[in-house]
Amino acid sequence: MTITIKDVAKKANVSISTVSRVINKSKPVSDDIRERVEEVIKELNYEPNQIARSLVMKKTNLIGVIVPDISSFFVGEILNAIEQIAKVYNYDIILCNSYAEREQELKYLNLLMNKHVEGLVFISYKIQKEHKEFIKNAKFPVVLINRFIKEFESMSVSIDNEKATYDMTKYLIGKGSKSIALIRSGDSDDMFINDQLLGYQKALKEESVEYNRSLVYDGIFKIEKAYKLVEKMIEDDNVPDAIFATNDDAAIAAMNCLLDNGYKIPEDVQVAGFHDTQIAKLFRPGLTTIKQPIFDLGSVATRMLIKKINEDVELNESNVKIMPHELIKRESSK
Amino acid sequence: MTITIKDVAKKANVSISTVSRVINKSKPVSDDIRERVEEVIKELNYEPNQIARSLVMKKTNLIGVIVPDISSFFVGEILNAIEQIAKVYNYDIILCNSYAEREQELKYLNLLMNKHVEGLVFISYKIQKEHKEFIKNAKFPVVLINRFIKEFESMSVSIDNEKATYDMTKYLIGKGSKSIALIRSGDSDDMFINDQLLGYQKALKEESVEYNRSLVYDGIFKIEKAYKLVEKMIEDDNVPDAIFATNDDAAIAAMNCLLDNGYKIPEDVQVAGFHDTQIAKLFRPGLTTIKQPIFDLGSVATRMLIKKINEDVELNESNVKIMPHELIKRESSK
DNA sequence: TTGTAAGCGTTATCAG
DNA sequence: CTGATAACGCTTACAA
After folding, report:
1. What are the phi and psi torsion angles at A154 (to 5°)?
2. Over the stretch B251-286, which tens digit does the pLDDT of each residue have?
3. What structural domains does chain A harbor?
4. Are strands A270-275 and A288-291 parallel, antiparallel or unpaired?
5. pTM of the model
6. In chain B, which residues have their Cβ closer than 8 Å to the Cβ of A52?
């Protein structure tokens, strides 16, 4: 039923190799034959079968993407970028949503290998041993967004997390805060997350504010969880004078909880986020936050990946790209 | 380098057909041989090549998804559902972001056909002639979310749009509004969008409020555009006493503009949205909106599609599913 | 129950 | 420049 290269060949009175050649412009074909073949192709509305092609060329033009949560602002915007750039280079995206669960991530890692993707953009809150193992041995290049693997050279795109938390912490202290809660998305044993703590601590130290471990909360990436966390602070009568969440959603949730309980922002509590997703600007009061070049994070990662796929680039230090960040001041801080 | 069915066959001292049989359990294989083969498979860490398999079986286990804007809340949540359900049935997702542009949509429609997807979930603001043509002739089933094609039986999942806008309009009038701006995402020649107008008009009529064409705005799905629109109303001193946007993002943008210009919500202007995305609840004042079962929209569509792919279902009227909606009252209305 | 061989739709090698 | 023909890795009649 579906028409193949054979049909074209027969109708054009040439061999299938010739048809293949005009399709791929892989070898010279005389003008008259070329024209004839092209005509037949049009006439028959022939489209080469990508699967057959993949089989022999070992090229699928597929890029895998594993994300922790499609419906988050941050990931949505990154996906946007990945998709856009990939399409430019004629790559398609296979999307996998891991729900930030290790099991799922590992499953997808294998699934994508099986689907013969040519590369992978991996967004994970926590890179674990098994991940590293996989990435190290993977037959295709992998680029991480907002994470590093320090044990070996992995491709990675992110901002300077230490500097970013440093900047924000310093800023909040400058505006008069003395007890700044730090709400982090990941777990403390993640290098990336660790950088955030380092920046926070460095700023405290510089400003002679004592570091208090109990002000640091980990593993909060769900809105509900962040809300509950702040609720608990209020119940315990233990509300800091600033809350710095390393993701905007959590910061918004914190603001909601504070507002719902009669606190004034920023007078009673300053609130700061991370990412500068849409909602940071939309929400009232506007959220002071670290602006990341989210789209660029995705697009740079994808370009890097595709370059690597095509071996245009060697595995060297330039495989880690640090993008600029910016402190955006809005009404949630003084 | 990569290990194939041949390697397994050789090492297990059987033919490749036998190996194939144990992999697919397609025909009986004696216990001892089966065990031997399974052992070798494990030993060699063999994984069947999906591409080769696709070629012969004409089955890719791929579902295409075309969306207008990945980074919107609504689409993100739907994608979430699609991905989740698809994975349950062992299907993967090829993601295409059309930016709501007709050209892109058509391009992707062809691309997906070329990739031999087995089905398509199509989210488009505006189904046009070319789309219909394509869908009608497509070799694979297509399910639309929130759109219908009335010309022929297409699979479709949505809410009852007429009833939803009717409910909301009636509610706003009940709360005292007389001039209700209707801000719609799509264009007026779309059937789906048209239903929204019908519901709006019906409610007005029932409540003896005169219909005023100039209060209906079309083609507003970008936040910026909605903001500008309301800004214009304010400049023209032409602010209605209620704004009903058929998507939450636009409603939030409207609220922002009103708040920024000193208007009180809901005292001066009531605002209502559509979808009940995360932000409707997060924003302050909370947004009164039509709650759609967003996740279900995606999951039902995907299940329907997969069933159709497997021919479990005939093309009949049950191919159009209407999901329930709900009016959620929050502080943006009286 | 098992093996042989044809075929899925291409590209690529090698003669001519 | 063009055409056979052998891959690519797998499934599936058809035979044995």
Report:
1. -110, 155
2. 999 999 999 999 999 999 999 999 998 889 889 899
3. 5-49 (1.10.260.40), 62-159+294-323 (3.40.50.2300), 161-293 (3.40.50.2300)
4. parallel
5. 0.88
6. 55
